């Protein structure tokens, strides 16, 4: 089970990293619209499930730390070294991941970069550990099927009771937290870390925290659109006069929470046509926020050509709340929340 949850967590985390920092060869589709919601939800849920499973695994094998002699052979030294690296990297990944979902960062390093790097260390140490243990795996698979497995005890706990308790603890941890991304679990997810925000959608970063209250509400605000034909400046009234599209899309955060909502605004494809550009062109998006890590993003051609990629002006039938990105924000299908840029001030067609 730990191998399964670690694999899911690693693969979905790799997907999230590639979506946020895409290399030239990587293409992330705009449909299905809720795919990122699923992959990142699985990432966080599998990470939470891994915590009691890893605790059980370490409890089960810790007596081997005191086995003597410390090193019996070169192969044994490699095995012990792989276990040390595996345990340290796994504990680091799970503990920092928990801090991240709580948006609490008691360290000085950039979490996404370090979390991603240590994930590769953990994956490599797992492969090394499995390779070293292949003889043990082979012997176990050769065991005669008619030999009953003894219900061994350790510290007064039987094997069956130990496995049952571990399974129960894992199930409780998942159910208690999964409601942040699984709507039908929300009534019983007592440890969900995001409640409803303004207009029924949670907020990670407020307008006050981003320092944009004044510029976002100024009467002279204009959206700058830079296209091959030149610069176009559009007021909020100009945007409201353009044809609007309404779409029900999830906003999915890298911390695992997601929320479906109804968004309305100008389709990016329509806006590109207005300024003389073609849908499918890459568009750089710049926020009125100046100092945030995600104050800018890039909409790839797969998304600018999608009619559901919006410059949103309304949320759930109401004018965007300031904390949700007023006067306008990007909302696109199958995108991480950190790339759904709020308080948009400039679009540049590349």
Characterise the protein shown here.
- The longest helix has 28 residues, at 74-101.
- The protein has helices at residues 2-20, 35-61, 74-101, 111-132, 134-142, 159-177, 207-210, 213-216, 236-241, 268-274, 301-304, and strands spanning 153-154, 157-158, 223-227, 230-234, 245-252, 258-267, 283-287, 296-299, 310-315, 318-319, 329-331, 344-349.
- It folds into two domains: 2-185, no CATH class; 201-349, Oxidoreductase, molybdopterin-binding domain (Sulfite Oxidase, Chain A, domain 2).
- It is elongated.
- A five-stranded mixed beta sheet has the order 4-3-12-7-8.
- With 350 residues, the chain is α+β, with helices and mostly antiparallel strands.
- 43% of the residues lie in helices and 17% in strands.
Strand content: 15-25%
- In round numbers, the mean pLDDT is 91
Shape: elongated
Which secondary-structure class do the elements indicate? alpha+beta
| N-C termini distance | 46 Å
Side by side, the strands of the main sheet go 4-3-12-7-8
Helical content (DSSP H or I, runs of 4+)? 40-55%
Largest sheet: 5 strands, mixed
What's the tally of helices? Answer: 11
Radius of gyration: 25 Å
Low-confidence stretches: none
The count of DSSP E runs of length 2 or more, i.e. the number of strands, is 12
H and E order: HHHHHEEHHHEEHEEHEEHEEEE
Supply the number of structural domains: 2
Q: What's this entry about, in short?
A:
InterPro entries: Di-haem_cyt_TM (IPR016174), OxRdtase_Mopterin-bd_dom (IPR000572), OxRdtase_Mopterin-bd_sf (IPR036374), TAT_signal_bac_arc (IPR019546). It comes from Amycolatopsis pigmentata. The chain is an alpha+beta fold.
